[in-house]
Design brief:
Mean pLDDT: 93
Number of strands: 16
Strand order of the largest sheet: 2-1-6-5-7
Low-confidence stretches: none
Helix content: 40-55%
CATH class of the largest domain: Alpha Beta
Structural class: alpha/beta
Largest sheet: 5 strands, parallel
Number of domains: 3
CATH topology of the largest domain: Alpha/beta knot
CATH superfamily of the largest domain: SPOUT methyltransferase, trefoil knot domain
Radius of gyration: 25 Å
Shape: globular
Length: 365
Amino acid sequence: MNYHVLTLFPEMIEQAAHTSILGRALKNGCISLETWNIRDYSTNKHMRVDDYPYGGGAGMVIEAEPVYRAYSAVKDKIGRKPRTIYLTPQAKVLNQTMVEELALEKDLVMICGHYEGIDERVLDESVTDYVSIGDYVLTGGELGAMVLIDAVSRFVPGVLSNEESAQFESLQDNLLEYPHYTRPEVWHEKEVPAILLSGDHNRIEQWRYERSIERTKERRPDLLQQSLQVHCACYGNEMIQEMADRLCQTLSRYGQVLNFNRKKLRKQKYYFDSHDLVVLLAGKEYEDDAGIPEAFTNLYGKDTPCFLFVPETSIHDVGTDQAKRTDKLQRLLERRGFLMKRIYPLFSIENHCKETVLKIRKILE
């Protein structure tokens, strides 16, 4: 990941970035950072970059030309038009889905405003994304840029020593993280919960899930409304089953996989509501095997969001038996109370699992 920051105060970025985990990542070459001083691109002999706003009003506005010249220099160095972010409170507030999506880029350009802002015309020509770090106003965009750099870098391979630290943590499922404890077992007469000392990993995971829900309900009830319990149901060969496991783990720490290759599971009935997310993976075996009519027909929803993954031919080859069966399954699920959000080809999991999960999250927002 290569960061390029356009700013009037490059020292603010440089000093903050070269410490702790970011400093180590820069040293190891996992990320790179280059600051571009907007003043260096001023056409004024005194290196002035601001002027009074048209229409009157308090404060000064950064001129378009020096920003554009600095942006053009970055673009020429990269060799293409890059993903360019303007840090401003007049934008959507940064969230985990946005962070993970930005982490897929090779280069990120950030423009830091100051004073009353930047001439709108240059923003129209250069900016691809407007991002806020919260509903409050700072003196400049530098601190916002550092927040973004820190958050995004955690998803760049090699930045964290433990990949699980980035994959499973606060906000992974729109839930706050569970409480943490370390030695000693008793501190100020407060004991570590006994379950954490039991060695029973299934019970520990369930305890953590319950504590996450409790903490979110207490501190961020707004997030709880957005949290969905993930269920991935599959029918197909071993590769389809592996895809279901992979997709479920990427979507949620606490997701459930329902393998309908097992007749016992196909015979049970499953009921979901609007707090669930159901994802179905139907392999070629499902569409070819008319002798397994109960697969997926044992699911009942109530305004339950649903995504369906099928072979590519079942989407594009209109009129074929496979496409007709996919259409029949979709109509059945909709009659059963599911809200069909999107149908994807199965190869999107195999080749682009992370990107596909981000698309699902954005659709659900």
